[in-house]
Amino acid sequence: MTARAARTTTHRAGLRRTAVIRRVHDPEDIRPFLESDRAYAAYAIAHLDPSMFHLAEFYEAVSGERRGMVMHARGGLGPSGVTMGDPALVSALLRLHPGTRQSYLTCEPAQVDSILMDYDLWRPATMLRQQLLREDFSPPPGALPVRRLIDADAAELNSLYAIEEEGLRYSGRQVSEGIYFGAHHRGRLVAAAGTHVFAPREGVAVIGNVLTHPDFRGRGLATATTAGVANYVLKYCDLVVLNVDPANRTARRVYERLGFKDTGRLVEAMATRRGALSPVPSLRRIIARWRATSPDTEVVEL
Predict the structure, then answer these.
(1) Is 271:105 a contact under the CB 8 Å cutoff?
(2) What's the mean pLDDT in 83-111?
(3) Which stretches within the chain are classed as H helix?
(4) What's the Cα-to-Cα distance from 103 to each of 53, 253, 268, 271, rounded to whole Å?
(5) pTM
(6) Which of 10, 156, 190, 267 sits at a 20 to 30 Å CA gap from 170?
């Protein structure tokens, strides 16, 4: 190697790219980044609601013009997470602030490979994110009768969801605080739709939990219950979204007839952190804080 080549190699080695990481405590500092892709970030935006913000932790990483963000949230049916932004920065955030051992994760498709470096993803599914605007909402004519469910309906709702969703149980409080609509046949709940999150002060609702008993499918009950939920939340929310399997043409037709439109794709999975008992993340944070020159920040090499 020539002397010139050696100097060039040394010079390039010294130009290591770094990222500054911090926990963000002010919702208004978080909002602009989430608003850059509102439909995708709806669940995270909902957690800016004052009644929910204490249930979430937001971390950001910045490197030049690149930015990444991770939200870890608790409550509802268990821990959840949302990642957004540059894949390398998302990976750096999760290595320092991995959250709980297991959580239900929503990420962008381009981030999957980076996340798999430290997590096992159980049954990952690529989903379509669809959004409904008030002016596009088209409730079905002559809709079948549905009603909003209350806390007393929780046991029957759990029995319905147990057909496909093992291990998930909704309390009466979760049913009454969320927005659930059901259809009944001879006094029996046979179809339901609800919300994963409803944050009227942020104007956000994520619709989900749409299920019809197999004996009653093909009768328009999924359309009727989803329309009931949509009609209710649109009175309070201007950001109404849901996820649907792109291969499920029946469900897609239901939502499209109501006025939902595709906005992009995302990946959902149960994420389990490998080496959950390892002290490595804590050691990484110590080193990252030592590198930082400002309080409450961390610096990592990319």
Answers:
(1) yes
(2) 96
(3) 3-14, 27-35, 42-46, 87-96, 112-115, 154-161, 172-177, 221-233, 249-258, 280-291
(4) 18, 30, 11, 5
(5) 0.91
(6) 267
